[in-house]
## 1
Amino acid sequence: MWSYLARRLVQALFTLLIITVLCFILTRLSADPLAQYATNPNMSAADRAALRERLGLNRPLPVQYLRWLGLAVQGELGNSFFSKQPVSLMIAQRLPMTIILMVTAEIITLTVALILGIISAVKQYSFLDNLITTFSFIGFSMPIFFIALGLILIFAVKFKQMGWPYMPTGADIWDPKDLGQLVRHMVLPVSALVIITTANYSRFIRSSILEVLGMDYVRTARAKGLTERAVLYKHALRNAALPFVTIVGLDIPYLLGGALVTESVFAWPGMGRLFWEYAQRGDFPVVLGVLLIVSTAVVLFTIITDMVYTLVDPRIRLG
Amino acid sequence: MSSDTLNSSGISTLKVESTGAALTPRQLIWRRFRKHKMALAGGIGIALLLLFIIVGSIFIPLEKANYVDLKARLAPPSAEHWLGTDSTGRDGFSRVVYGGQISLIVGILAVVIEISVGTVLGGVAAYYGGWVDAILMRFTEAMLSIPSLFLLIVLGKFLGRDVQTIEIFGLSFSGSVGIVIVVIGLTSWMYLARIVRANVLSLKEMDYISAARSLGASNSRIFFSHLVPNTLGIIIVSATLGLAGAILMEAYVSFLGLGVQPPTASWGNMLTSAQSFIQRGAWWMWVFPSLFIIFTILSINLMGDGMRDAFDPHSSRHM
């Protein structure tokens, strides 16, 4: 167990190194970070060259990378070229907003998906199951912006036209510290996220439960005369939940990155939108910082999920 | 497909299928696919869509799809413009036809790249093992650890630094189409590489591979004549489901404004402009391209699911 963990951690370090090299090359070379000054009349070409020199942007790429890595390891992610703020501060401001949005969406999704998945599996091939399966198939095939734009069109635009109580679109100015405003602005993005993710999860839960219900020990439990309820909740569900734990565990770190499209459509001030806004400007320290934090979380959570899985499922032995 | 055909489901499958004359594996697969009603529905859906796009492109000239008519801006569906017009008065119906062409071409070519990279990297990693395997798998893991949309945006920005117009067969495409194809292809091969690797790892221990080797077959012959054909089922299923993913990704990237650039239409970039005009209630700009995306993805997913079941001898109980 411990030697396995040590090996995984060494591998993870290597993976992270590849990620940083890959991301550094892609983001550093995708745009000139000083392009915004090119049109500035107060700055001559000589000034720009001096600034480039001072920021170390004219040194060889490997040197720039090592310098960035050296600081990043100490938690120093540099400053944004655009807002001049430290990247770590910008991320620290956006992260709570993303976490509030994503955790709320994830909790609702899990609850709804679990209920739908169980109904669907227990009443296999019934009208209800067909309905749920149809909806989850459609939801699975849908880009999230379809739902997002639809929700805005109906609940923000049309409701407002009708003079009904309507939802804000996020384009207005609001204060995230005001709980009432926060909740009002969360309703639409959370709904969009829940609809799309539920489709995915409920399908998974359904097939997972059906698989377990076909096992010999479930037949044994039924043969012992247990009620269908006891079979389902005491035997089937616990085992069906195992692969589901992995799926959710592996999804958690991605929540940190936020839902880029959802956050953009609803103008939610989270990590995804931070990334998207600064990627468009070619502001590589910000983009790199977000990438580094999200990918590190993904790598770590993969190991944690694997470890937790071996603890809850005694059939798995680590080699 | 799999070596353990002796479990309970394998036996029941054999019983069902051995009633008639002996069938080749290919006939068995086709028979299972035909019996899968949803898969057949998906296949019909795709056929209808192709028919729509082909017939549409014959009757509607490309000029009409890109024709700007500022007097007919934001017109709702009418006898003249069946699916309404967009913010510059371009005809929605013609753009859906030509956008579909682009979306499908992008999807198919991206999957070709995905399959080539995934198969070669996964196969090489498994076949050669050792440090080749270690490095390739760490690289795969690194790519997987960066959330796909983030990776897509970073790579798209990197490759999209200077975009030119491409002329093929007298049609001029915005160079962005080529970039979108490469970007989607290069960010989606990782799962396939892992699956191919696992499959080749188990195959290369089989006796017929040592037989081939003792007969003096070269590495590349063993790889391309023995290992690749036996992995084909997995690759075909991945390609089908990958096509749905690629079309969806095109929609996401174009929606964010990084993908196919106007005047060339794609279902994704038609929705970008829809987002700006949703506040004015221009629902047709949002509904129609989205419905085409959903219909396409749904059909492909249904067919892919059917193919997965058809290629998997264990799957009869899930049908």
Note: Chain B is about 70% helix and 5% strand.
## 2
Amino acid sequence: MNLSVSGQISIRGISGSPGICIGKAYLVDKEGVNLIKRYPISDAQISKEIDRFKQAVSKAKNDYAKIIESIDKTIEDNLDILETHMALFEDKMLYGRTIEAISTDKINAEWALRKVSRRAKDMFQQIDDPYLKARVNDIDQVTDKIMSSLFGAEDKKISDINKRVILVAHDLSPAEASQIQLEMIKGFVTDRGGKDSHTSIVAKSLKIPSVLGLGKAMVNVQNDDILIVDGSDGLLIINPDEDTLFQYEERLTKFEAYRAGLERESYLPAVTKDGVVLNLMANIELVEEVVAAKDYGAKDIGLFRTEFLYLDLRRFPTEDELFCKYKELVELMSPHSVTIRTLDINGDKVNPYLSVVEEANPSLGLRAVRFCLENEPVFVTQLKAILRAAAIGNIKLLIPMISCVEEIIQVKQALGKAIHELEQEKKIFNKDIPLGVMIEVPSAAIMADHLAEHVDFFSIGTNDLIQYALAIDRRNPQVAHLYQALNPAVLRMIKMTCDAAKEKGIDIVMCGEMAGDPINIPVLIGLGLTHLSMNSASIPVVKNMIRNIDSRKAESSMEKIMGLNTVKEITEYIINEYKDALPFQGTDESL
Amino acid sequence: MILKDGSTITRTTSVKNELGMHARPASRIAQMAGSARSCIWIHANSTRVDATSPLDILTLCAIKGTQIAVEIENQKDMDVLNQIIDFFETGFGESQK
């Protein structure tokens, strides 16, 4: 952290998504505890104070009942969580004890509630079970709700923000991010999260600048402070002085002009200077993202992540529920293809309902295909839904986290079971769909030539491949900078995979974030990759890069690059060789 | 099995669903217990909690297979007791693997 004479504070974090924005800070924090006043009450006031509390609870309950009423009853299970909260409003642990605290401690209702809720949260926090630990959130939400009706204050929700602001949060969950009204938010910064964390993926798709992993933003920023978010450089500047402000405003103008130019060209084909055509596809998580993907010029959906429905429902969806979603998606995309990746629950996205046993190392644990093979009915249900949707549109099936040949054989057995059940049930389906595996575990890259004999295509998932190959947790701000796509070891693994696919004559796609960063494009073209799937917001800039590259030159520079030892050498080599093709990032160097 | 212990009546069961005790069943149980005339207690992992408090029920940390005893203090709450036991027996109505 850097404090200047003028009061300007600079904090360095990790670039979440590129771009610059300047605006006022808006702190999103659950605990407005500092605002809670504590004052004593007299004996005579006790019953009045208890009544005030009871009224606040009943108001909160009424508000909740209205929400429950407004929710579509056909998706009743979505109500579970709200109904659970309803029950908590009058839970003895909160309700009863708050009333007790008001009368025995002779304190105001707010303070009594805060005290009781703290105690309840502490109790859950100590439990050695991730699901129960997470109940702290339920207590928080219910407490917040009562607290705000005690204050008579409006509920502060992200979805209610009504001015153009920069969000400052401890962390931003996908659920919170989905509530953001884009036109209201200029950018966001968080204390947690690292490069390629879920938060950053969200930021990139929202196309707003962000800096993550700041560590100390929440304590240094106050509401309405002027902030500069330099997402390209991973820098947050609080209360900038005039010179800095002027400098950044200039940079911002240039960056916006540049980006607008790229987007105007995004309908042009992705062809290298010497005429090699690449297929740029979109990675999506929600059906709603299809429109944006098409706007950005994506042809196919190269990766559809299917976890969302599971996490949203907080239970295993039925075959029909899954089928409806997949059907909607393939119909929207038709005749273009949709690659559906089967359930990939992992450390990022753990749902307390799915993890019964706490794992010390979730990313090395029972996740993705391992989880599916252990829980075969869950897997078969999803496979059946996919096979049924394949009768309607163009689907490819992608299995995540494959680490050995045996797993593919088991997957095929599960697939056989799904087909058998569908036949028995006389449902319409299509079993002739390409089967592919993610290459994201180093052992899969090493065994690629053997794996290739069992599948129709590979999809290189660089996010995990890099993390596993380099033993770097990309969400850990302390080591996140060591997570480097251009590490020579990573490049070798990718090359092995490409060579194996070429030799066995199967298709190969790259669907990790690596494919969305222009600096990697010469390498990917040099390796002969022609199918790249990425966050759709990255498509215009990648397309522009491709259009400025000669594939023959890329091939020969690849030979040179494979001889280099360090990330630094490789990066410098690419920047030097391709400086005219590389995009303007809005950072100092590119000015 | 019904045990008579002084003035209380206890029936035993176990947690049958895969996920174990979680928020939804806990709040349903609390709703059921809320209609009782007298106190209803749930025993598990050598702890006793008030069955009308979902949070209290969660603190039992009752995973699948945990032995459960439900205790009522009033003969007239037999219906509620049976309703709660049935709810456990049917795995909280969750689909089984």
Note: Residues 2-29+170-260 of chain A form a domain with the Glucose Oxidase; domain 1 fold (CATH 3.50.30.10).
